[in-house]
Design a protein that fits this description.
The structure holds two protein chains of two kinds.
Chain A lengths: L12 H5 L13 H53 L11 H14 L1 H33 L1 H15 L7 H8 L3 H25 L3 H9 L4 H35 L8 H10 L3 H29 L11
Helix pairs in contact in A: 3-11, 4-5, 4-7, 4-9, 4-10, 6-7, 7-9, 8-9, 9-11, 10-11
Chain B lengths: L14 E10 L2 E11 L4 E5 L6 H9 L6 E6 L2 E2 L7 E4 L11 H5 L8 H10 L15 H13 L5 E5 L7 H18 L2 E5 L3 H7 L2 E6 L2 E7 L11 H16 L24
Parallel strand pairs in B: 3-8, 3-9, 6-7, 7-8
Antiparallel strand pairs in B: 1-2, 1-4, 4-5, 9-10
The chains are: A mainly alpha, B alpha/beta.
């Protein structure tokens, strides 16, 4: 994506790449003048090249800074609103208060402990639900019999929202860790299952036929053609699941917890410590963003062969 | 014709198709087809679309089972896929998640990987081994596909309209490449194509399939490399092409006035 940055251009855009113009005319046939002219021309072209490089790096810098303009502006507005007293601390604490609350928690080690507990819950739920989803997706996608047996049942259960099952979950599991893990696992299962199933089913049959004619065994066909072909769909399912995972975690942590970001936030709410509540919210956001970054990095590595993921050259 | 001056047995396989038939549901695609191919021959199969030439190739490959008749490869009946046979499809069918060199080495035992690089070199892509297939042009991908087929040193190479999607210049280069590789290795080649010129340029024999049966079996006696401008070449090509287009199609019955009257004698070759 390119946009013109008129303020940074020191000369009209078209002439940066063109032959630099000299401000005077050199008489032809004069060797000394010709030599001087050559030196001046060289200097001028190096200056033009330097200008180009500067312009490109300035463009790149701005490109990376522009996404930050809106958040920084928002925080600035927030700060002025709090400082001027227009925004009461009951409604929203000042940004500096939030920062100092976060700092206090970090210093005492509490922040890290809660983050660890929450992240642990989320990842365990992901491992259980996602693992099961992957397995069943591979099974129903590859073997017709299992598709006929299991798929319609799974589709029916899928339509039951996980959060609506909370009263049942509390009845079955009580209010300890297993209840939260169950909720997360159930929510995370379906996107991964669906996308794995879809991915396996949509591998190009021409490639599978080609693999058969080139002497690949069934196992070889699976590992070299079917699984890599399904991988981009599976990763989409993973990103979906990661997003859901955080949402369900937040809700699950409200069902009474002894530790975790949800506990931190609920506790702070009891004592009207709105700055800590905001720290909790921001922590959730940061963890969600981090998980998404991880998933994108996985995608970039595993799908680096895909023309859609390669840098435009 | 291949000049087999040495005494060693031909590398290619001999094919014998007897009373071969294939039907899909109620439709007979191939009927009572008889064909004998000598080891090392280059046979081109031409015909209109839907005539059954690709089906014939798929039966010889072992991808499908015949409804009637039999196929014998070197005297032995064919049963499913064979390790000596390789196919080159119309689309390159490269695995996009493997690098070019890994694609060529598909199905090769790990100790023979160096062969993959040699064959890549032979098709002129020796320096592209580390690239992803998405970065190659259509002609380059087909060359990789050819390398992949040849790295297993097949005794029977089946080509299913492999050059149909390429531009004219690349096609001529591919002709030379395939011909050269065939002359060196001596495998039996079966080329399915709708391009009669390509058939005459490459093959020892041109077979025309019409309505599921072989109706023409023309031997090409021209010296190699074949010259496109050569009068004998042109005459052969004209004879075969005339035969391909000879069968008149029924005039389509239409009472849709706004479509106008169809051009007289319009027939479809592809």
């Amino acid at each position: 994506m390119t946009y013109s940055i008129r303020e940074l251009q020191t000369s009209p855009a078209t002439s940066v790449d063109a032959e630099p113009r000299l401000g005077f005319h050199i008489p032809e046939g004069d060797p000394l003048a010709a030599g001087v002219g050559a030196v001046v021309r060289k200097l001028a072209s190096s200056w033009a090249r330097a200008q180009r490089v500067l312009l490109q790096s300035a463009r790149a810098l701005l490109h990376s800074l522009v996404p930050w303009i809106v958040p920084v502006l928002l925080v600035a507005v927030w700060h002025t609103a709090s400082a001027s007293g227009w925004l009461s601390t009951r409604v929203l604490p000042a940004p500096l208060d939030v920062v100092s609350a976060a700092w206090t928690l970090a210093e005492s080690g509490e922040l890290w402990k809660h983050v660890q507990v929450s992240a642990g819950r989320a990842l365990t739920g992901l491992a259980i639900g996602g693992g099961l989803g992957l397995l069943l997706g591979l099974l129903t996608g590859s073997v017709r019999f299992f598709e006929t047996l299991l798929d319609s049942t799974i589709q029916m259960v899928r339509n039951i929202p996980a959060l609506a099952m909370i009263p049942l979950v509390i009845l079955w599991f009580g209010i300890d860790e297993s209840a939260k893990l169950f909720l997360i696992a159930v929510a995370v299962f379906f996107p991964i299952y669906l996308n794995t199933f879809h991915g396996i089913r949509n591998v190009d049959p021409g490639l599978i036929e080609m693999g058969r004619t080139y002497g690949l065994s069934r196992w070889g066909l699976y590992t070299q053609i079917i699984l890599p072909g399904a991988l981009s769909s599976i990763l989409v399912g993973l990103r979906f699941s990661l997003g859901l995972m955080w949402v369900i975690l937040i809700v699950a942590e409200t069902i009474s917890a002894q530790a975790g970001i949800g506990y931190l936030t609920m506790n702070a709410r009891e004592f009207l410590q709105t700055d800590i509540v905001l720290v909790g919210i921001l922590l959730y956001a940061a963890l969600g963003k981090f998980a998404d970054l991880l998933a994108r990095a996985l995608e970039r590595y595993w799908l680096r062969w895909h023309p859609g993921y390669q840098k435009a050259s | 014709m291949t000049s087999n001056t040495s005494d060693k047995p031909p590398y290619g396989v001999g094919l014998h198709l007897q009373a071969l038939g294939k039907r899909y549901g109620a439709r007979d695609v191939l009927r009572n087809t008889q064909l004998r191919v000598e080891p090392g021959q280059f046979v081109a199969i031409v015909g209109r679309s839907g005539c059954g030439k690709s089906t014939l190739l798929r039966l010889v490959a072992g991808l499908e089972a015949p409804s009637a008749g039999s196929i014998a490869v070197d005297g032995k009946p064919l049963d499913g896929l064979s390790t000596d046979t390789r196919i080159m499809f119309q689309d390159a069918r490269l695995l996009p998640w493997k690098r070019v060199a890994d694609n060529v080495a598909l199905g090769l035992p790990p100790e023979q990987r160096a062969k993959a690089q040699d064959v890549l070199q032979r098709v002129g892509l020796g320096d592209r081994g580390r690239d992803w297939p998405a970065k190659l042009s259509g002609g380059q991908r087909q060359r990789v596909s050819l390398a992949r087929a040849l790295v297993h040193q097949p005794r029977l190479l089946l080509l299913d309209e492999p050059l149909g999607a390429l531009d004219a210049l690349t096609r001529i280069e591919m002709h030379r490449l395939i011909e050269g590789l065939w002359q060196t290795s001596g495998f039996t080649a079966l080329l399915v194509t709708h391009d009669v010129q390509e058939a005459v340029a490459l093959a020892d024999r041109v077979i025309l399939i019409e309505d599921g049966q072989i109706v023409l079996d023309e031997t090409i006696n021209l010296a190699r490399p074949r010259q496109h401008g050569d009068p004998a070449f042109a005459a052969l090509e004209k004879r075969i092409l005339d035969r391909v287009l000879q069968k008149p199609d029924a005039e389509p019955k239409t009472d849709i006035n706004w479509l106008g009257k169809p051009a007289h004698g319009l027939r479809w070759a592809i």
